[in-house]
Design brief:
Helix content is 30%, strand content 23%.
């Protein structure tokens, strides 16, 4: 390894050491820092490989259909009703075409300009005008002679008509008449045969429709269909749809897996990973994926693995998949490559881990003379900051960082950067966290004609199934086929290579590289879009292939998503100094003692007995002593250890051999611990509730204790209240808790919540979790196990799992980090270094100002960002809501993270908007877009069921639509808030769900995402009394989040629904 480090450029001050000594120090520091990442990834991979296979149910969604075409038996025309008069003027009249002609009709004075055509003066009036009473022009009377009336011809069927225009159907072709699209009048309309029999169909394409093959109508070639208005069509010879489309299946989640709170994402997403093998329970049940639609959980499968396979349906109702670890393995490989074989271009990546006090990042001069290609309008709000960042990015020797709030034009800046880099002969590797983000850049490069102008050769890496239709031509396989060029040559020639941070791993060079060879960077720049959702280890995989790194994103939106079970597995196998693991007995003692302290504190009658192994006795005893000594357990409940171990009695802890126990003295005890050897000689007194004792519920002891329940008051803490329970409930719920939970899990979810709340102005909630974590950590230590070492290791894991590369470099790791290692990656750039490399975009161009103001005032004031651009045009005539951000007060009830009443009210509001959208065009000439979003997957499922019925799309999961008569449609997207980051819609309906707790809605990052997706209108539905904290009921729960309270109190409210 050392010779790689000797070849590196060294900017750190090593106090005049020789290159050999400096190289060794650099190697040791890098190895020590990156070893933590390697261990974390190694343990994560092992935990996933040992994980049970993810299961899914499935059902067919394709019947065998016939596709047919309708040939119109006539024409539809649009006319502008008009009456033309010739203006007859007196002799020697001096015309003035600039002056309007005045005329009177039904005693009303009106005016209109005269036009001159073919030497005649003409007056053209809208509509059919029979008579003009009098007219004057340039102060003199003139006569108006009618010469033409444009109106609907006879024997035609009028379809739409106003005073000024008409649309009509004619079986005959009419010359010099403007045709309309006949298929606008068939969408969502009933069709019937001549005998009145209705014809059931489904729209397939512009002129094509499909019906089930078994509907008995296969012999309808050349038959005539009619609409209710009399428009006639002839049916062409039907044909079957493509064979593969007959094999679509849709996946369904297994019964509620209890992960609704834990994960905002469905486990079904694993079925759409690259390079996977799906199986069912049958002997030969192995399948490969031919095509998929992840948003809709749809797949087409082929039997086996390889080429020339047959389409098929699975043989078993349950499908299984082993979670793919390829992404994690590539991250581990990248860490090891940087650790063991760095080349000079990667020295600045190593520099991120060097001692922050010794390292200095080089200064550079910023370019000033740039010919702008995309950012051409210097007067546009925000252009100054956008241009400033481009200058920094093109000048930097290492990193450039752009933060931009929602709708601030980050994509536009990326377009400018790509053009500037490519026109100067550079190559760009572009990555992002979502397919939408990457495809959006390519679509805009294509639309703006930049490909031809700058000779951009783009390559899109990733599965074609996940790529936008508009840019599939750039997908690697399609490019090699269409250009007839070898893959390797094409990749070497491409100057813009794009893919998601996961999808880019399918780059052939990434997949084929030898593990024992260094990575030689071939790209001048890596641009990571949405890097606020990218961890360092995710960033490093593509970063090794570039010489400079440009990061864009917004740390006030969602952080990287990390599977909780990966972090849990790392805590369960917590590596300590001396290559030891934290003992399981130590973890168990901390976990059980903390919970037991809470249980016995709920009531004086709550008494518990627990059997533990003899190996665990000393761990429980020592930990309890330290907690009593440090006043963590302040009430000093009486505790007995029944054991053969020789232990000292102190701090209200009494130790007895099993044969020494006096039953009467146990009456004063609150907790009894009995070791395995002693339980053979000792019977637990009946007044104690046994923990994890099989069969107790049906024992005589349980029956007798429950019979005497009037003498005892058993309580259990629920939602911070002590709730009275009977002994069976107490034991059952306590056993469930200890069986399902662990020390590692209890630590992890609290660290996760602590991280989610790190940007709160008020740190009370974060401090609350901090305190809970402190109480779960060990207080006992000896020569072998140091509690500070344990704390540092826990913090190291948190620092690897949660922060993004963007936040690490801008603000440093907020919260948990290893205090022994102070570096740029933990502390961020210094103020001077950051100023050279960092820009915040100030203006937003997406939201109506009434929508953006809350996020600006609560989340972006520090940077004076999310200012409203003066160019925002968000005028519309949907007047249901008095303000563009409205709260609809719904008094619903929550069950398993769904609120049925709230969901129903949302659908009612959506229906009203659909009625409006059907009659009104979208202001920008696009399809109307609607987003229905919620924080909880339970509510998402309920809303999905309702949208499927509303839109008559029983197999749709996320992308719903309703067609309009003008061939446009209303697109309705359903997602959780986490899934909808990076997207936008004309109107957003946000379901809050909760009525008695905040859940993870109190995360300012998550709330910010939810509130910044809407362009024209944001509608929030929820229990306003709960979120505003203004319930007239004294005992009603109130929100604890300052942001949620501010939102509810500063958003106009629309009536309560009960």
């Amino acid at each position: 390894m050392k010779h790689y480090y000797q070849a590196l450029s060294k900017e750190t001050n090593f106090f005049n050491h020789s290159n050999s000594e400096a190289s060794q120090r650099l190697l040791d520091n890098t190895s020590n820092s990156l070893t933590y990442f390697c261990k974390y990834l190694k343990t994560s991979i092992r935990s996933i490989e040992n994980k049970e296979k993810v299961k899914a149910k499935w059902h067919k969604i394709s019947d065998e259909n016939l596709v047919f075409e309708l040939v119109p038996q006539g024409y539809i025309y649009e006319i502008k009703k008009e009456t033309v008069f010739e203006v007859v003027v007196p002799e020697n009249f001096e015309k003035d075409l600039e002056e309007s002609l005045m005329y009177w009709q039904e005693n009303e004075k009106q005016k209109q300009k005269v036009i001159e055509e073919s030497g005649k003066m003409l007056l053209k009036l809208n509509g059919i005008v029979d008579e003009i009473e009098k007219a004057t022009w340039v102060g003199e009377k003139v006569k108006l002679k009618p010469i033409l009336k444009t109106e609907v011809p006879k024997n035609c069927i009028v379809l739409k008509e106003t005073d000024h225009a008409a649309t009509f159907y004619s079986k005959e072709k009419i010359r010099d008449m403007e045709k309309a699209n006949i298929f606008e009048f068939i969408y969502n309309k009933a069709l019937k045969f001549d005998d009145g029999t209705p014809f059931e169909y489904e729209i397939e394409g512009n002129h094509t429709f499909k019906v089930p093959e078994d509907n008995g109508l296969s012999n309808f070639e050349n038959k005539i269909l009619s609409t209710s208005q009399g428009i006639q069509f002839k049916i062409t010879k039907p044909k079957r749809e493509k064979e593969e489309d007959r094999y679509w299946i849709q996946l369904e989640e297994m019964e509620d897996n209890g992960k609704d709170e834990i994960s905002p994402l469905s486990e079904l997403r694993y079925f759409f990973d690259d390079d996977i093998q799906i199986e069912d329970g049958t002997k030969d049940g192995q399948y490969s994926v031919h095509k998929g639609m992840e948003d809709e959980f749809r797949l087409i499968l082929k039997k086996g693995k390889g080429k020339d396979l047959e389409f098929c349906f699975p043989q078993d109702p349950i499908l299984k998949i082993k979670v793919n670890t390829y992404q994690l393995r590539k991250q581990k490989e990248a860490i090891e490559t940087l650790q063991n074989m760095p080349v000079d271009e990667q020295s600045k990546l190593i520099k991120l881990f060097e001692d922050r006090n010794a390292v200095k990042w080089s200064d550079f001069s910023t370019l000033s003379d740039i010919k702008w290609e995309v950012l051409t309008d210097e007067n546009r709000d925000g252009a100054e900051e956008q241009r400033e960042f481009v200058r920094k990015a093109l000048s930097t020797n290492d990193f450039a960082i752009m933060e931009g709030p929602p709708g601030s034009g980050k994509t536009t800046v990326i377009l400018e950067l790509v053009c500037q880099i490519v026109k100067n002969g550079g190559r760009v590797l572009l990555c992002g966290s979502t397919h939408v983000a990457i495809d959006n850049v390519l679509e805009r490069i294509k639309e703006k004609g930049l490909i031809k102008k700058f000779n951009i050769l783009p390559i899109r890496i990733g599965d074609e199934k996940r790529i936008s239709d508009d840019i599939k031509e750039f997908q690697l396989n399609n490019m090699t086929e269409s250009n007839g060029i070898q893959e390797e040559l094409l990749l070497d020639a491409a100057n813009l290579v794009c893919g998601t941070t996961i999808g880019i791993l399918q780059h052939p060079k990434f997949k084929k590289r030898e593990k024992n060879a260094p990575v030689i960077p071939e790209f001048d720049y890596l641009i990571i879009d949405e890097s606020s959702k990218t961890t360092f280890q995710e960033f490093l995989v593509p970063a090794l292939y570039a010489k400079k790194w440009i990061l864009t994103g917004d740390i006030r939106q969602l952080s990287p998503y990390t599977e909780r079970e990966q972090i849990v597995s790392n805590l369960e196998k917590l590596d300590l100094a001396g290559k030891k693991e934290m003992p399981k007995e130590m973890q168990k003692s901390c976990f059980y003692l903390q919970k037991l302290n809470q249980l016995v504190g709920s009531s004086k009658d709550n008494k518990f007995a627990l059997n533990i192994s003899r190996n665990e006795v000393r761990w429980f005893y020592n930990e309890l002593v330290e907690r009593r000594k440090n006043r963590i357990f302040k009430d000093n409940k009486v505790t007995f250890f029944i054991t053969h171990e020789n232990l000292e009695c102190r701090h209200n802890i009494f130790v007895r051999k099993p044969f020494e126990v006096k039953p009467l003295e146990l009456v004063a005890a609150d907790i009894i611990f009995i070791d395995d050897a002693s339980k053979l000689y000792f019977e637990i007194p009946e007044i104690f509730l046994p923990i994890q004792k099989d069969g107790w519920g049906s024992s005589q002891s349980a029956f007798r204790l429950n019979y005497k329940k009037n003498r005892f008051d058993f309580y259990l803490k629920e939602r911070n209240k002590d709730i009275k329970k009977d002994c069976y409930e107490i034991v059952s719920l306590t056993d469930q808790y200890f069986n399902k939970k662990s020390w590692a899990e209890e630590i992890v979810w609290r660290i996760e919540r602590e991280h989610q709340l790190r940007l709160n102005k008020d740190q009370k909630s974060s401090d609350h979790y901090k305190k809970q974590i402190e109480y779960l950590m060990p207080f006992y230590e000896d020569i072998s196990y140091n509690k500070n070492d344990i704390s540092n290791r826990v913090n190291s894991i948190a620092a690897i799992a949660f922060p993004s590369i963007l936040e690490s470099l801008v603000k440093g790791i907020k919260g948990r980090k290893n205090s022994e290692r102070i570096s740029t990656i933990s502390e961020g750039f210094s103020k001077e270094e950051l100023e050279k490399r960092h820009t915040v975009l100030k203006y937003q161009h997406r939201m109506h100002p009434e929508i953006s103001d809350f996020s600006r005032e609560n989340f972006y004031m520090e940077d004076n960002a999310l200012l409203n651009s003066s160019s925002i045009e968000r005028d519309w005539n949907y007047n249901r809501y008095e303000k563009r951000r409205m709260w609809i007060d719904v008094n619903g009830a929550v069950d398993k993270n769904k609120n049925e009443i709230e969901a129903q009210r949302l659908i009612e509001e959506l229906k009203k908007f659909i009625e409006f959208a059907k009659k009104n065009p979208q202001p920008e000439g696009l399809n109307w877009s609607v987003a229905v979003i919620t924080f909880y997957r339970g509510q998402e499922k309920d809303l999905r069921n309702k949208l499927q019925k509303l839109c008559n799309l029983p197999h749709t999961i996320s992308n719903f639509y309703i067609r309009k008569s003008d061939k446009t449609q209303i697109n309705i997207k359903l997602h959780t808030v986490d899934k909808f980051q990076g997207q936008e819609a004309d109107i957003v309906f946000l379901s809050m769900v909760q009525t008695f707790r905040d859940g993870f809605m109190d995360s300012p990052n998550r709330l910010n995402v939810a509130l910044t997706r809407a362009k024209f209108q944001l509608v929030i539905l929820g229990d306003h009394e709960y979120f505003s904290g203004k319930s007239p009921q004294k005992d009603k729960k109130k929100s604890n989040s300052e942001y949620l309270i501010n939102l509810a109190n500063n958003t106009p409210v629309l009536r309560r629904s009960r």
